Amino acid sequence: MNAPLDVVTGAFSYSGGYVAERLLAAGRRVATLTGHPGRPSPLQGRVAAHPLDFARPDRLAESLRGVDTLYNNYWVRFAHGGMTHERAVRNSEILFQAAAKAGVRRIVHVSIANADPGSDLPYYRGKGLVEQALKAAGPSYAILGPTVLFGGYDVLINNIAWMLRRFPAFAIIGDGRYPIQPIAVEDLADLAVAAGAGEGNTSADAVGPEVFAYEDLVRLLAERIGRRPWFFKVGPRAGLALAAGLGLLTGDVVLTQEEVDGLTRGLLKSKRPATGRRAFKAWLAAEGGDLGRDYHNELKRHFEGGETEWEPS
Prior knowledge:
40% helix; seven-stranded parallel beta sheet
């Protein structure tokens, strides 16, 4: 008898790869829906790849036929080219409808903490609308809302360290006292796989046990990698201007207005109990010495070569 088959969107990408590795280790068969079938990954050859083609819902449904659990990471961090948050909501609806048509038993959906369909921020509003679409789709579901991931090939934590390594000064937007509650990517993957084994409809935030003021977290990173930059405070407009200049240097979108708003409003902290168990400070002490040696380019990672699979950064 064949082992159960699961599908992970973006298994060749960051958090999706951790989920897929755990499913394989548990003896399950794994396939992926991806817009980047040729992306280098340790999972190449171990995971069957199918197109994440929202223009062909019937093809999506056929790719999901016989699947027990769909682990969905699809989203976009920022609008780019023809991709918008509104389009990502429509695409998510198409994916959920295809899963229902194919008879998928359960969908584990990676959302975001503080998702809100009534938010004035398109990212958080879109994630809230996607959660609504999932609840209406039919299959049983589990929703996980992470904040910021650390470990492995993360973007935000690594790229802050990259800036700390290369520049003599570091700008803190606002007062720097807004909270951030990071979670280890391994914890998110563990929570996702555990949720996939469940039956009832559930919703929980995926957040670690520690909460930091943003400035304190940045200073911890600087200390760990042996840098002592000059920290200075700037307003949001000046901070975005500096980020735009850095974007020209790196060929990336470093920071958006919406991300500044979400960060300074405290949306990177959960209102729910912590669900992750790995402590950021302990991880940083053990594994953070090489952070920031390379820049992790979000634009190249997600938008070159097709549709994106989102991971919370």
